Fold these 4 entries.
Entry 1:
Amino acid sequence: MKLDVLSSENDQDPWYRKGLSFSCTQCGNCCTGGPGYVWISTLEIGRLAEFLHLTPAQVIEQYCRKINNRFSLTERINRGNYDCIFLREEPTTRVVEGQTIRTTKRVCSIYPVRPLQCRTWPFWDSTLTSEQSWKQGTQRCPGVNHGKKYTFKQIETIRTATDWPKQSPGSTK
């Protein structure tokens, strides 16, 4: 399937032609919120199964739900939000003005094998439709407009990926 380059209403070139900045802070904000879907392919289920030392059938049974003919990761309700089944809260400490503060951070427990949908955030069609949608769709993400600058070509490669891009947003390699 070929995906067309998104263009702005008043211009032939997409509004993000000059590139966009993003660095994943691994805050977990994109892994929680209202109910939704995290689509996962059968190839990715196999990768996840290998990572978790399970069979693909076990991964589907324990962590997926079938919607029509597709699979999505399941969610669990946590403080009124729908968290991805693989979002974990880990205890952490930080020192502020000499005081040790205990808190938690949210992390993806399958980050190395996260699905394509997660790997391509925030370069989704829904966030790239317009500058306004970029701002609205990424309000909860502290990594948007910070860090690494992605060129138009890199954004399009990520946006149109059908399997894991060689370097996805947030990866350190």
Entry 2:
Amino acid sequence: MSKQTILVVDDERDILDLLEYNLKKVGFNVFKAENGEEGISKAKENRPDLILLDIMMPKMDGLEAVEIMRTDSDLKKTPIIFLTAKSDEKTEIESLNKGGDDYITKPISTIKLVSRIKAVLRRLDSSEPSANKLEVHDLQIDKDRYIVLQGGNEHRLPRKEFELLFFLASRKGRVLDRKALLDKVWGDKVYVVDRTVDVHVRKIREKLGDHYIETVKGVGYRFKE
């Protein structure tokens, strides 16, 4: 199996070198870039499996860079982790809304960083289910029959509740904002409001319990890992 490739984008040379050394040590191939513009160029050229992206950089910051990457057909699904010294909630929410898959505040130990990288890669690998059946936690979600098995209980959810549950569960651990959920589950040609998602999540929780779907304040929802 070929090694997975990570692109590290940061304007501090010592951080770039340290990350390159530690990521190579655990088996990744590593490319480096020193600002957002160079990061986009290197990403298009090398098609990495994952991008570690700083925010505060010259020429183009990480927030601008991720917006451009998410409009590129080759990069729009590439997992991106923000690795930054900015620890305020507003920036974290903005980063996730613009297309980040995770947000990590510096400093972080190598062991924890590698663990978060592998977690994102695992869940993104399985984000597009190849089958219509999912087994997550104690749930078996069968899209062919539109039923949910929970222990010895069988649940038949209304269509949109089921499809919302299936979509969230198939992207376990990934934060999804309300707009994305509306587009994917209801479609962009159907007029519904953000509140519709909240109501359907509440109904799912009433039937299955409130320990599966987590509310991410100011962003949306995440199916717990």
Entry 3:
Amino acid sequence: MTEVIDTFKRVEDKYFITAGQMQEIIEECSEHMKEDFYFKYRVHSIYYDSINSDLIIRSLLKPEYKMKLRLRCYGEATGHSPVFFETKKKYGNIVYKRRFELDEQEAYDYVDYGIMHHVKNNTADEIDYMMKYYNLKPVVRISYDRQCYSAVKEADVRITFDSNVKYELNPESLKEEGNEKELPLGIIMEVKAMDRYPMWLVKILSEKKLYKQSSSKYGMIYANNFETMSPKVHAAQGYHMTQQEVKLCSVQ
């Protein structure tokens, strides 16, 4: 049985590619990569934010430090699936993730009714503080198919490919209901590494002229649904998103 890791510190770089490029990269990396233990699955994540979208707005301003809070399920959400409450923080180029596991229903009881869950540790205390300080609510569920590969020799290197991204605003649970909207992104390739890229990967990316891009699925959804998701003070003033703000959202 594979050990569940609850703390991550690594670089996570994203590349937007086509399905054809994905197949080419998989073939060219075949000598160096293998299918991950968890190879193919669908990811479901609920992102939490304040009524004024404080967390996503701060993220889009490109600060040195930013953070997000989400509830994540790997595979189908059944109502009692194992789920993870997770903080994702980025300081400079380094991503820090800390999480803890709950039963799905226990997580809903905590978020919806304030019934305290059973976990007692620093991460749980931090998330509880964030929930109360920002008065966080579920704002969007993002789901996508993920395909994973891990390096044969470099234990810290993984490459994932995300596709078929769909979302629903103001979700009640992690389960897809069939009325989700599509987020047309093609394939998102993500390279995760503790240190630097291995030279074989640098060579492949260079030959294909692929360059990392700062991006956020949540940020793009926020841009596409600004009138609905924007801070209430903006809505009351008849505020409309500028082209520069739309551009920021689409590249974060």
Entry 4:
Amino acid sequence: MKKQGATFRDFIANIRAEGKMVELKKPTSLKLELAGVMAAFDGQPVYTERVKETPGARVAGNVFCTRELICEYLGITRDELIPKIASAINHPSEPELVDAKDAPVLEVDAPVDLSKLPIPFHAEKDGGPYFSSAVVIAKDKELGQNCSFHRMMVIGKDRVVVRILHRHLEEFIKRAGGELDVAFVVGAPINFLLASACSVELGKDETTIANSLAQLRVVRLESGIEVPADAEFVFEGKITRELADEGMFVDLTETYDIVRKQQVMKITRIRHRRDPIWHVLLPGALEHKILMGMPREPTIFNEVSNVAPCTGVNITPGGCSWLHAVVGIKKKHANDGKRAIAAAFAGHKSLKHVVIVDDDIDIYNPASVEWAIATRLQADKGVVILSGQKGSSLDPSADPHTCATSKMGIDATRPLVAHGKNFEKAEWMKVRKEDYV
């Protein structure tokens, strides 16, 4: 278990010491090879100091690629994770503000030259090297701060193209007249990453959610923006009116997203910790899916809890950790399953298919969920199909112009009145296998 408020590098040091991190011995190139290695070890944290283009740079990837690793960092069990994130969203708290002299992220003022950093070129058809683990932090006079993940394609030593579509950051830019001073961090603690991926109302500062997950220290930059004081890197710059092609890029669906005109950010300052660790997040892999999909589970949990006691939510990797979910409920009324379907779609607007199951079903076990569908569902009564719905731009099968899609909900809960049938799942005596062999 890790102490509350542990830093990114603390966690790396701990899992390295515990032998949980694959340490690369062979020098690896940023051009396609590093991503290939990360993919080969997907599900296992990876560390290297042998990147060919940036000798001596410390790089870590697949860091938060399982729920178990995140729970270890936060010092909680798997079943406590989603209720804890939901509670942090509902009960935010102010992080500790520290002086610049006490902020490790400001220790080194580095030259503004992105070519000196271990920024990978991930996939063959990508538009260029990409920041994929960066969280952009912006400030508005009335709305306060906003923290959100944005991929950024490198197009020069001090310029990147930022994918901004339909996020709170877009509203901040509009309110500022089309240009906006921002900062972004790489190598942030997991509580900050999870909070920044949560879907919350405009005007809610994600650092306050992060602080309720685990203690967070922030430092105020000259721009007034507050960033995690213990992050590995902080970049400052301005999102300009200039537009450039952004993409292609592999997204959550493991397919290439299209090329779009997006705004260019000019980077004006780079600071980092001494001997910093670069966080590589492989697009479409488990860490990407966990960090982007799982923070949507608490919003589904909150919505479903308004209509029925919710026992858990799993946005599944097979559904790209974005389009599919399994939701457990403790059924009290005959229509709770149907109501939970509607609530789940309200809790995550990009959700395409959802399965509602009873609390005796393991929502993390596909075979258990399939068993519930096989034994507790009659399709003509328990399947809800919605046509012409607003879907996700990540779904290749949605309408390419409007993102319109069909959605399906499956009520795989057992009826409250059995009518002579037995829907109870048998349980066997619990034994320890090692006692018998």
